[in-house]
Amino acid sequence: MSQNFRLNNIGLINRNKKISFKFNGKKYFGYEGDTLASALIANGVHLIGRSFKYHRPRGFFGAGVDEPYAAVQLNRNNETEPNVKATEQELFEGLEANSVNCWPSVNFDIGAINNLLKMFFPAGFYYKTFMWPKSFWYKIYEPFIRKAAGLGVASTKHDKERYEHKYEYCDLLIAGSGPSGLASAYSAAKNGAKIILAEDKARFGGTLLTDDVNIGNQNGKEWADNIISELKKMPNVIVKNRSQVFGYYDHNMLVMSERISDHLPITQKYIPKQRLWYIRAKEVIISSGSIERPLVFGNNDTPGVMLSSAAKEYLKIYGVLVGKKPLIFTNNDSGYETAIEFKKNGIEPIILDTRKNPNSEIINEAKNLNIKIKFSYVVVVAKGYKKVKSAEIAKISDDKKILSNIENIDCDCICVSGFWTPTIHLASQSGAKTKFNKDIDAFVPDKSKQKETTVGAANGVYTLEETLKTSFDIGYQLSKKITLKDNRVSVPSVVEKKSEVHDKFWCVPLPEGKNYKRFLDFQNDVSVADIELALREGYRSIEHVKRYTTLGMATDQGKTSNLNGLQLVSEVENKIVPEVGHTTFRPPYTPVTIGAIVGREVGKHSKPTRKSPMHQWHEKNNAIFVDAGVWLRPRYYKRGDETLFEASKREAKNVRKNVGVCDVTTLGKIDIKGPDSAEFLNRVYTNAWLKLPVGKARYGVMLREDGIVMDDGTTTRISENHYHMTTTTAQAANVLSHLEYYLQIVWPELDVNVVSTTEQWAGAAIAGPKSRQVLQKLFPKINLSNEGLPFMGYLESDLFGISARIFRISFSGELAYEVNVQSDNGNFMWEKIMEVGKEFNIEAYGTEALSTLRIEMGHVAGSELDGRTIPYDNSLEGMVSKKKDFIGKRSLNREAFVADDRQKVVGVVPLDKKTSIPEGSYLVKDANAKLPNPKLGHVSASCWSVEYDNPFSLAIVKDGKNMIGQKLFALSPLKNKSIPVEIVSSHYVDPKGERVRS
Amino acid sequence: MQKYSVFNLIKNAFNNHEGWEVAWKDPAPKNEYDVIIIGGGGHGLATAYYLAKEHNIRKVAIIEKGWIGGGNVGRNTTIIRSNYMHDENALFSEFGMNLWRSMSQELNFNIMFSPRGIINLAHSDAQMNAYSRRGNSMRLNGIDAVLLDRDQVKKIIPMADFSENVRFPIFGGLMQPSAGTARHDGVAWGYARQADSMGVDIIQNCEVTGFDVVAGKIKGIRTSKGNIKANKVGLCVAGSTSILAEKLNMTLPIETHLLQACVSEPVKPILDHVVTFGAGHFYCSQSDKGEMVMGGDLDGYNSYAQRGNLPTLQHVLTEGIAMMPFLSKLKMLRTWGGIMDMSMDGSPIIDKTHIEGLYLNCGWCYGGFKATPASGWTFAHTIAQDRVHELNAGYSLNRFNTGHLLDEKGLGTKTWIS
Amino acid sequence: MLHIKCPHCGLRSQNEFAYGGDASVKRPELNKEVSDKEWNHFVYLRKSLRGKHLELWHHISGCRQWIKVQRDTATHEIFKTFKASEEI
Hints:
heterotrimer; A: alpha+beta; Ubiquitin-like (UB roll); FAD/NAD(P)-binding domain; 7 domains; seven-stranded mixed sheet; six-stranded mixed sheet; 23 helices; 51 strands; about 20% helix; C: Folate-binding fold; four-stranded antiparallel sheet; two-stranded antiparallel ribbon; 1 helix; 6 strands; about 10% helix
């Protein structure tokens, strides 16, 4: 198909590069520099999609971010992406796009039946119906509505694209490269400020690209081009196109999304699709311009109705005619500028001006060009379904209430201009209040909240001369404040046409007996009647109106509809617009790809992975790993086709029988130094610490101030004023912060320093009756007898030439040691242990065997210390000193904590000695009691006791101390299990703890 | 009151919908009421409705600083569930589930309760065990719960990340099939409309500036629209609780924090259930409009600003993509924040206070929306009878003295850690 | 994102810090008799001020010092930051 609507001699596109693309399966051509929208219009395609609710045909209304809809499904880089705006998507070779929200096709859409039934679907109709019968909402109505809703189709595949983040600091961030942005950027940059100039579009210059103006004897575009090329050469300037500053957050942090590859057919290797910039700016200049407001009339959503500024942009930037018989409908002079451009390019427009007798340079120029102008005229209704074919127009009375002389005129597009709305989103996001400017019938930023200054059209300044003057000045003033330099550039002279004031009129009344839909929100199909209905029903605050009608809640967030909505509410409610107020502007200004927000932290990198120095050994020896926080720990070492159960049983058995070694590097380790260390530990732990001798370790429990157990572990006195604390893997970071808090905030008088040494030490726990023999091989020089290294003793020695710390501590309940060496030597240590241990049948064991060993010994761990239990619950009351104060002690005597029937940890054994009790089961008296069945406690941890070869569990049970010997049921309704059990002591194996001392 | 029905909808269609009456009136405050409810959010509106309906107390005013439904009832992710471990929370929420199930019909307002099921994903055996503990507790309390293995999860939400390239593989999940979502605004408006029809005065744009307390008894409140007398006053203001408590010289076990949420652009149906991520804090569902509704962590520091910062959302969405990689290509459309009354054990407070006639309803943390009907029902009971109902007996203020805490997460008093 | 001036390190982004809550909460002295009320007040009750709030932050990805920050909880404006040792 040929580009029938493309002009030959105008536009900024590259005509040397023809681009082919497909829309809805049909092949078209455009040029490099086109958007998908401009290329389609050049080919005479205006029907882009269907609206959300009524499935009415939708065309192009804007030319960029002002477009309220124009969403397409885009195929690019072998992936599909929903809801891409055709007015923002640049054309590339091979682009394929499809309409969304229509079936079977955009031309023939079954959903359009909604349009015929629209009288039954006013705002909020769904609140009033679909209630009967009761189950039908979820089963019938809702699935139907869901299917009909939604726009594009999300790909279910992993996103192959790459997104990056960048952090940047600057003196001045300038958002928008129109005249105000360029002027302030240039002025500030010349005064030495480090600036970032961001432009959303591909081309810099904003309205200078389309307005017929002169700056310093150059036309607007030439001036913009020159400023940009000069800025690009300056070392203190970053200039970014295709970059939208979408959020203004606290403390002058702004976020910008840069579209790096979206305009290219494929993403190059190592190049991101988009880059997210976190920018901390000392000052911010908001030069985001303004968006033209629609005029509202019957069927004003028909394809072919569009903003006059968009029509001008298609013409001047893309060389595309949006129609050949344009009707311009305006309440201000902007429409004339569009008409003049049509005329200059050989098209005969007709202007309908709502004003009675306006007079200005621009109007005179139009008159001189013999453009047909009708004053006090309005469009009553657009005719045509999928494209404007004609329009009914009428003369309107001076009070704008009565229509007369209604006639039908031929046209193929209607370009509307209802004056301009400043883009105040960023200023408002910053926290600035807004004020209503009556001269422009719109809100502008009031006093700035953070370090932002709004300039040009975004601030309601609509003449170029004033815009440049103030922008040059503000760029200079702000930069001077930061750089303390004083280089001022002169403001160039400006030639622009003067305009007449606009007409406040924005909505055409309905002719007698007609009930045309007049739309405010083109995507969500919100009409004037919908707003009126909401108000009639008492939804009167603007937030209620918005939520009830969904006005401004579509993907454009109401950029062209919100202000007209406010005008309507104020008229019906008989208020002035500022009394109605507006809804809150929140980031993002335009929708931002979620992948870009997330950046590179995806897939395996969504969280860090921590590995011990022995990780490779584990891998080589068929370790199956388990996530322990962000650490990877061997869960078991698989031999042949062993299951988890078999392997862990083998490993645990070997510990009980021979000797095993477990990687305990992940335990938190904290170095504690200083003369008051003992006193500090004495306050942190529940037990006594003042008399721990050098070379001895002690088990300790620490509480939160609310009396709940926070963590446990052993701490060893390395020397007089030096301790080595271990924490659980999970709580390592919290415990360090906790200690620092007490040292720095609560007891600063204590002379103690703490530092994390988790990463500094690799640890191996060697456990089992033969562990002493293994140790002796590792450390032949030292005396490892009970006298030389007693239980809870500590020694330093060298392990084949490297220094090592040896702790005689045990988690497994067996005779056991823990050896620590510097991390770099971890693997060496491990291999030596395996080497010397071979003759004793040493085997590595994982966390699963470790759990088994600790459970059958009745040692509590994370599943019992779950942030809800006190020492008593865990049978740790013996650890709680009565003589001294410590963190959390005062909470322990609260009513619930000292209750006679307080919960306590117990052991649980199935009566049949065969059936494993699933963790998370509950203990009840009566397995068949009616619900809710009173629960006595829950099973916190289960294992297969390798000592007795039957299942064993730990449980925390109400009145646990009196429950030993009771016969109960362990219920797991989730697993359909009801297991008769007996409550036993939690110390199932070696209750006297003789082995660890052997 | 005008009935909402499909017949009335059709009837009114032929009259250009000009026959619809106001959903609620906008009266000026009277001098005196039997009960004043401060806070025109979901809980306040529900309380007034149940006071009128269950206890026949109709001289009731709702005093709202802004516009009704403008706080957290209109700022949440619309999830409704009763998948709690502690009995107090579970039985309370399940009572609420029954109210949800018939709410549309009871209020004659389609609040679109949609029991699409919630799935909490688990990423380790340890987490499967923790979920078993919760799920078994639910089942023993008569609440539906199903433990799903990896393959079962894959069948229900195939677009979750079941690939090799995943940091925390999915092991399975806990599902409450009867949990779901509802239309949040509709809940506020539905209660407002019925409360209004039974005589409750809904007073908007009226700020409470003080309280009249004489000899330990509440006598009335002072507002920007004048003084209003009442011997019973219920405080139901979520994130603003501490501000009003200060006017009563009360310090409470709550802190106000910001929770953000966001939605993507609408897409065709892809996710039928509510899903939560187990290796972090992220939850997601798809609205009827097609938007992915997503939330997660608090911003993490005391805040009364209904605006948040991007790094928190970045963190939340990182977990989102980790759970469902397809989210990456969608665009974040809208973000917002609500201020949460975070209690020191994560569970709410519905109780009498040391001031006679003053009743407290706060501490809802993340869970306020789902609790709306049960909260309103029990609070109405507490106010009307001047004693707590057994359903909210566990939600006493005194539990922080006795140690009978209801800490579902076991995180203690650091409310900013989620 | 907040920009917090660590009194030890200078101006840093919030993501280097962890929040530590109300700095006006004072732990009762060790070994001192305190009433239940006093103790529970310390553990659970918070003023949760709207407006100027003195709070603790922990520079965990920096110098690991706990600092005090005076911040407006409604606007997030930070008025001043202090070392832990400084009295306000």
